[in-house]
Amino acid sequence: MLSTVSDASSSPTRRALLIGIEYGHGPINARLSGTHSDVENTMELLMTKYHFQRKDITILVDEPGTEDDMKPTRINMVRELQALVQDPSPGGGYFILYAGHCVQLDAQGDSVEKDEYLVPMDAVHEGPSAYIHDNLMRGDDLKRILVDPIATVPKARLTAVFDCCHSGTVLDLCHHRCNRAYNLKSTYRGLCRRVKEAFPEPGETAQAFAEPWTMLAFEKVFMSMSVGNRREKRSSSSTCDGYCTRTRRTDGGNVLCISACKDSQSAFGNEHGGSLTRALVATLIQRKNHIRF
User: Fold this and answer.
1) Which of 34, 45, 61, 96 fits 273 for a cystine, CB–CB 3.0-4.6 Å?
2) Pick from 179, 190, 173, 287: nearest CA to 234
């Protein structure tokens, strides 16, 4: 969750992990450009506007001359992901940027669905197969490493930015549809949920849709927008349909995943960086109020 504050320097302890992979050692069709710029621009934003200390920011890039233990290999990424959220403190803020490849592969077992995998630099090589499967990082593993430790700590916050293809549900969060905020369908779903919460009885809900601009409906619907901005936790067997009940939570942390696209889509970038990271950095630079991560 993000919240507006007047002085970011008063924030609790924060840590950040920035990963940028261009795969310069791999085949031409696997190479990316601009991901190192994403890391540099995000680090500058965190330090200059949000007062992160350089010692609290870890960078993994595959630039020439980078020490082996700071390259974005699978073993190094796992180590630094675990270190990012190790012993999270109440009210602590944790931030991760991943700019690189993400691929979809058939899910394990008999499922017809697909799983999302991050692609560390050592999962790409010059060879007959596209990827070294054992070096890929599955979304379920990311959830176990990043999300589970934060979820149990009151008011801890993890903000994860995935500027890569197929990243919509890469963290396997419960509410990947009701939290979308980029199209008309998402706006409609949000309005339906708020009307349902404001008018829980079937007759009241129908009346609110039939007479949406009465003072009573207007007041109840829009007052509910500022109440309970955390979503009710759902069981792993349930599926978010976009109309989940909103509720206040005070017993755990919050995880916000900002993805460049849906699972079925591809992201865009060039030598200046990924489109998501550039837009995010530009937007936050222009904000007059600070955002607390």
Assistant:
1) 34
2) 173
User: DSSP alpha helices (H): ranges in 99-164?
Assistant: 139-142, 148-151
- Cβ atoms of 267 and 165 within 8 Å: the answer is yes
Q: What is the pTM of this model?
A: 0.77
Q: Which residue has the tokens 């755990």?
A: 252
Could you please state the CATH topology (level 3) that the domain comprising 3-179+250-292 is classified under: Rossmann fold (3.40.50)
Phi then psi dihedrals of residue 59, to 5 deg? -120, 130
Say whether pLDDT at 220 is over 60.
no
Residue with tokens 């991901």: 35
Residues catalogued as catalytic: 101, 165
Residue extents of the structural domains in the chain: 3-179+250-292, 186-224
Banded model confidence at residue 244, pLDDT cuts 50, 70, 90: low
